[in-house]
Prior knowledge:
By secondary structure, this protein is of the alpha/beta class. The protein has 13 helices and five strands. It has a five-stranded mixed beta sheet, with helices on both faces. Pfam families: CTD10.
Amino acid sequence: MYARLKFLELMAELNETTFEAFFHRLMCARYPEFLDVRTHGNLGDQGSDGLMLHESKLYASYAPQTVSATEIRQKIRSDLAKALEKRADQFNTFVFVHNDRRGMHPEIATELSDQQRAHPDLQFQQMGSRKLWHECMQLDVALAEDVLGCQIPIQPVVHGIGMEDLAPLLKHLRDQRRAADPLMPLAEVDPRKLDFNGIQEEAREDLLRGMRQSHLVEAFYAGTLRAVEHDEVAQGFRVYYEQVRRDFPDPEDVLWQLEMYVLGNGSVPPRTQRAAWVVLAHFFERCDIFDAPPPGWSGPLGIPA
């Protein structure tokens, strides 16, 4: 958003040579094969403000302080005539670059259409502020800052749908897990639920490890004051699980999305990450996330549920 606002400011301020310099910076940052043609003595620019070698495109830019359709039509004709005279074998597409933020003037569109009919062997395109912005959006931050001439204040996007509600629980688990017995027997969980949902290898180990201490989650929510909160959090897990399972068929990817639901997508300390898997194990055991095997389902060894 900040870069977009800065770009719009530039489009309002730049004209003539300053606009051409901006166009050159942008295209050189985007395309290694772009040639930023400058005027040189009596040669001028030979009808070109830029050439794209691989695509055989010639760019002619025009950014007056005040828009005059008649002057712009004359400019297009003049640049095209010079380009055909001096660079006929160097391009097959003529691109008119302008700074009109409102779009293309109807008479300019008509002029380009007329030139297309007059020169059927050439292609004619226009490049206004919308297309220039689309090019800007393809740049990485360092290049965008150079093109826009400013620092872009970007912070890592960290989000977690459940973070606000789960922050006290994660703190509780970080504090209590050290005192819990890491070797205590697992609560009775049918391993066929893991099989039924295709959870294997590391993800399976992480869930089983979390199950050893999932009773801490139950203890945290014990009592009438937190019962409603527990139900609300469980409902949040159920709804989010149904959303991500549609987009991520691999159960390991689903668990990864659920982990981000708890923690956000930023880096967290290992203790916090382990606490998150205790939370996931708890809601897995409650069947708020992933499905229980249906009655009569046989696991991979043919043992009936």
